[in-house]
Amino acid sequence: MAHEKSRCPTGAETLVSSLAASGIDVCFANPGTSEMHFVAALDKINGIRPILCLFEGVATGAADGYARIAGKPASTLLHLGPGLANGLANLHNAKRASVPVVNIVGNHASYHLQFDAPLTSDVAAFARPVSDWVHTSQSARTVPADAARAVQAARAAPGQIATLILPADTAWMPGERASGPLPVSGVTDVSAAAIDQCVAALRSGRKTDILLRGPALTGAGLRAAGRIAAQTQARLFCDTFAPRIERGIGRIPVERLQYRADEVVQQLCAFETLILVGAQPPVAFFGYPGKPSWLTPETCMILTLSHPHEAGSEAVEMLANALGAPEVRLIGSQSNFTLPADDLLTAEAVVQIVACLLPDNSIVADEGLTSTFPNYDLLATAAPHDHLNLTGGSIGGILPLGTGAAVAAPERKVVCLEGDGSGMYTLQALWTQAREKLDVITIIFANRSYSVLNQELERVGVATAGLRARSLFDLRNPEINWVNLAQGLGVEAVSVNNVKEFYDVLSSVFLKRGPFLIEAVI
Amino acid sequence: MAHEKSRCPTGAETLVSSLAASGIDVCFANPGTSEMHFVAALDKINGIRPILCLFEGVATGAADGYARIAGKPASTLLHLGPGLANGLANLHNAKRASVPVVNIVGNHASYHLQFDAPLTSDVAAFARPVSDWVHTSQSARTVPADAARAVQAARAAPGQIATLILPADTAWMPGERASGPLPVSGVTDVSAAAIDQCVAALRSGRKTDILLRGPALTGAGLRAAGRIAAQTQARLFCDTFAPRIERGIGRIPVERLQYRADEVVQQLCAFETLILVGAQPPVAFFGYPGKPSWLTPETCMILTLSHPHEAGSEAVEMLANALGAPEVRLIGSQSNFTLPADDLLTAEAVVQIVACLLPDNSIVADEGLTSTFPNYDLLATAAPHDHLNLTGGSIGGILPLGTGAAVAAPERKVVCLEGDGSGMYTLQALWTQAREKLDVITIIFANRSYSVLNQELERVGVATAGLRARSLFDLRNPEINWVNLAQGLGVEAVSVNNVKEFYDVLSSVFLKRGPFLIEAVI
User: Fold this and answer.
1) Mean pLDDT of the B72-84 span
2) Domain B192-322 shares a fold with domain B347-521
3) Name one GO biological process term (chains A, B) (predicted).
4) Least reliable range by pLDDT among A432-436, B153-157, B278-282, B340-344
5) Has the ipTM of the complex gone over 0.85?
6) CA Rg, chain B, in Å?
7) Residue ranges per domain, chain B?
8) Deepest of A33, A231, A482, B89, by most Cβ within 10 A of its Cβ?
């Protein structure tokens, strides 16, 4: 009997085994008491690498970055309602990127909930706004199946947020055998009719352009889009904040939709037909007094080649073939950078130097906002790289995102471009980079303000901002010292305020491995 | 017409006026685009002091601390669903403290929601789990009344979380006149029957003790509780995590319920009758395998003198009077501290030195967990002070809480006792302390681990934690350098690892004003 008992795994152990069997190999964790059995199970069962995050927003943002690069979900481990709450903002970003994530959220033992202890909350209610799938395990016996279903839900095309809530007693009670993986409903093929419709549009003589999102912005899909563009004069666009796009020398250039509604309207004003590949029709990021929300011309016909859950990359290839478009070969070389006469560091100079020095096959995670947005095109001249954006507008996600991307691709260099305001939301990511010795270079654009809000205040029609208002955008008093912050979290750092020095520092850190932060004072 | 127009206030302006008219004078803010009109209105309309926080959890935690000391709500200003999400964990704590808070959460313009722009989310769904009152303004014309109702809801006894969601167009459209304050349903008197019942119990000869929470732990209520204790031999208890309790020399001592369920069971095992004053019956913080959730003996009779929404402090006075209990005068003196022979700094030595040096009428905000909990009694020998606890178990709330308390009482010294793990969740609070020159001393107990989790792992019955599990509680690799972090956020700091130095540093910073951080390496 005692022997029997010792062989019987806990619910938590079957959870870990089942997650591992379904292909989960990383867990970004910030556990608490209710997750202790899960933690113990991580010891006993091989297959999942736990990565400690000092704040839950780091865990969820890292899971997002991991999935964007690995193409499969990581798990997070979060502590009850408040722990999940701290991770919600970056789950919002992940959801908007259609990224798969499996959240494991501990909760009170089921019988303990009725006592309304201080940490009691409606965990499922916290989860729902950001989750495509939410389930609370009812017993240790169902935990393995629940785990397999969570991964199945996360992997459903195009990628979903699955949140499994695990009452502590379902973790510590004796469980069943681990569950194997469940079949995943991957992308579905587009219909021949959708292809035909787009062929007809592109041959119609009407001005027809293409808006791409998802896998069609990478690999074979992107190359096929380039063939179509060369053959038909269609312009290729991507969203303002594409989750992932391949850029750089030799890659098909894709025009980015601008951030400001009126600028997008300018971009799109000549559109007669717009073909969507895994994208939604362009809308304004915010509503502004007297400005439009819907950004394509009213007369523009919108066709869908592929919905987000469909095989967009393959659809673009089929479309290119149907058009008889030949292969395209782009030739380019990395831009040569001449140090400008004016030595003062600007956001433009920073991006230009990054473009010039960026190692081949890097990952650029970009939340530079006012610093990087106007200089986006400069990166097209960099070595081939993946460009990742903050997708949901929930500020501060990029340091965690870059952290997760580096876990997914340890052999690739990750460069985080971050504002000094945005960076403050989840700066704890730097500690995880240091602990895991991740190869992430963080460049902080230190303009000492919420610069985007200064602009936004004018855009919403407020002409006369006084001292009280301006003080809410000003980060000068006191100045944030990013070198101190990084060092406090175990990451080597320097502050740089001239072009030559920035060039030299970046050149040298690109030759090394491990995390590093450069505060670029602009 | 143009003249007419220029005199018509925006919805945002009427919001600010109405909040101010209802007694809101502080706004802990982390605004974004959708809140720009509110920001502009803060300039135009006097009466509300905006305080910038670099993360939303700082704003909500500060509002909690402000209300605990000021006895009235502050407002927060948060940016759409994700901004609110970042503030939820500390709102959970505030809700568990029955503290009044008025959240103003911007949202997309109402007509813009349908376009499902990237920042779109179900803001009300985020708000509900932590809010007692949630409302979305439907028009600029209703904004003033909505604002007045939000403050009314927050101030309803014993204190509530009110969340007002403000679509951007209700802020920018022309509004109505500001609304005046609405009547507040304050505490209600307890019934004579409740008093009589408790008098009878205390005179019955059965062992009868009292558990106090809320205003009865301060001022006249606490003094009256002392009279009852002296007259009847009733022991006075407070919850493990009381929102606010007056302690120190000359004040009535109240026994704290322990954190661990089995220790509480020991404390309560002799109880025959328990009188609740604004408190709930004691329950375990977590459920553990084979351990009880309900902590009073099964045979213990539980009487309610006052519910949380009732006038607990007055009820205790009435009870003392009904018992004919005479005034009690406690005499004591601040403990003298003799530097121990062993110079190694320990958590106990830190708390002892704090107790010895604490200025009169200070505020101690305590989230020291394993460092301060065993040393709680030492603070009873300190000068009179308010002791604030983390009420909801949502880790990391104390740095924001101390920040808000300092805003509410600029003439009082605030001492934050914080763990090095807990402190990492919302360390951005230090920046706000520096900007506002708040008189807060933060003491970080740097034991380089999630020490409480090491203990919890054993308590849940996991005997053999291996490397992977232990790594999730270890903060050594890399070591967090709190001096760097504080300096990075504009707060002066030192690291100390021996008793003499800690004594000297604390003595000197208590003589100065403004924020300071001491990393106490223990």
Assistant:
1) 97
2) yes
3) small molecule metabolic process
4) B340-344
5) yes
6) 24
7) 2-172, 192-322, 347-521
8) B89
Query: Which pair of structure tokens corresponds to residue B281?
Result: 């019956």
Q: Which homologous superfamily does the CATH classification assign to the domain defined by A192-322?
A: TPP-binding domain (3.40.50.1220)
List, in sequence order, the alpha helices (H) in A293-428: 312-322, 347-357, 398-408
Note whether A54 contacts B: Cβ–Cβ < 8 A. yes
A82/B392 touch (CB, cutoff 8 Å), yes or no: yes
pLDDT-above-70 percentage for chain A: 97
Tell me the two tokens of residue A296.
């394509």
pLDDT 10s digits, A297-336? 999 999 999 999 999 999 999 999 999 999 998 877 666 6
| Pairwise CA distance, residues A74 & A151, whole Å | 9
Averaged confidence pLDDT in chain A: 94
With 50 as the cut, is the pLDDT of residue A3 above it? Answer: no
* B 475-514 → A contacts, CB under 8 A: 475, 477-485, 487-490
Residues paired with residue B29 on neighbouring β-strands, in sequence order: B52, B77
Residues of A in contact with B421 (CB under 8 A): 54
Contact A54 B469 (CB under 8 A): no
Number of helices and strands in chain B (H, E): 19, 18
CA distance B496 to B521: 6
pLDDT in tens, A62-108: 999 999 999 999 999 999 999 999 999 999 999 999 999 999 999 99
Selected for mutation to probe chain B from A79, A92, A95, A367 (highest B CB count within 10 Å) is: A92
Q: Which amino acid is it at B82?
A: P
Q: Determine whether domain A347-521 maps to CATH 3.30.70.3460.
A: no
3-state class (DSSP) for residue B373: helix
Q: Which residue in chain B has the smallest CA separation from A519? A: B488
Of B71, B64, B88, the residue nearest B157 (C-alpha)? B71
Which residue has 């054993």 as its token pair? B458
Inter-chain touch B487–A487, beta carbons under 8 Å: no
Q: At what angle do helices A143-155 and A11-21 cross, to 10 degrees?
A: 30
**Is the pTM for the entire model greater than 0.90?**
yes
pLDDT digits (tens, 9 = 90+) for B209-244: 999 999 999 999 999 999 999 999 999 999 999 999
CATH of B2-172, one of 3.90.78.10, 3.40.50.1820, 3.40.50.300, 3.40.50.970: 3.40.50.970
Interface touch A168/B83, C-beta < 8 Å: no
